[in-house]
Amino acid sequence: MTFSESRTRSAIFLLLLLFLASCGARRQPVTSNTRAALAADAMARIDNKELYRFINHWTGVRYRLGGLDKSGVDCSGFAYLLQKQIYGKELPRRSRDQAGVINRKSPSHLKEGDLVFFSFGGKDVDHVGVYLNNGFFVHASTTRGVVVDDLNLPAYQNAFTGGGPVNR
């Protein structure tokens, strides 16, 4: 065996050992408290299966101001369609007007299907979502489209103005 062949065999042997050693290494389990896992858990805990199907059907639809269909929907349009199709409730079209037709309750008493309102641009309500459970809600995000989000995130906590069921 030549010196070159010996080096090649040694290199292959070393690579094989490294490969086998890496295959046996323990991997850390994926934690189930990531935001995505918690959002998936909130979806799994939805009691109303029609609501679950509605959200799955709309998840990922892009945001479009004034939109009311799968080519794009805004937050108040999404809440409007959801309340009408799932709960048979008629809502005004704008989020600030929708905020006027709820029975306000404390955040700790929110229930599945309650509307949640936010003010990101000042004192007036300018965003709406629908509460699910365990601090999660679904809404049409201007940057991510229809998504399930955590109401406890600082951005939402700082902008939260109230929530409750539709009183119509």
UniProtKB/TrEMBL annotation:
<comment type="similarity">
    <text>Belongs to the peptidase C40 family.</text>
</comment>
<keyword id="KW-0378">Hydrolase</keyword>
<keyword id="KW-0732">Signal</keyword>
<dbReference type="InterPro" id="IPR038765">
    <property type="entry name" value="Papain-like_cys_pep_sf"/>
</dbReference>
<keyword id="KW-0645">Protease</keyword>
<dbReference type="Pfam" id="PF00877">
    <property type="entry name" value="NLPC_P60"/>
</dbReference>
<dbReference type="GO" id="GO:0006508">
    <property type="term" value="P:proteolysis"/>
</dbReference>
<keyword id="KW-0788">Thiol protease</keyword>
<dbReference type="InterPro" id="IPR000064">
    <property type="entry name" value="NLP_P60_dom"/>
</dbReference>
<dbReference type="InterPro" id="IPR052062">
    <property type="entry name" value="Murein_DD/LD_carboxypeptidase"/>
</dbReference>
<feature type="domain" description="NlpC/P60">
    <location>
        <begin position="45"/>
        <end position="168"/>
    </location>
</feature>
<dbReference type="GO" id="GO:0008234">
    <property type="term" value="F:cysteine-type peptidase activity"/>
</dbReference>
<protein>
    <submittedName>
        <fullName>Hydrolase</fullName>
    </submittedName>
</protein>
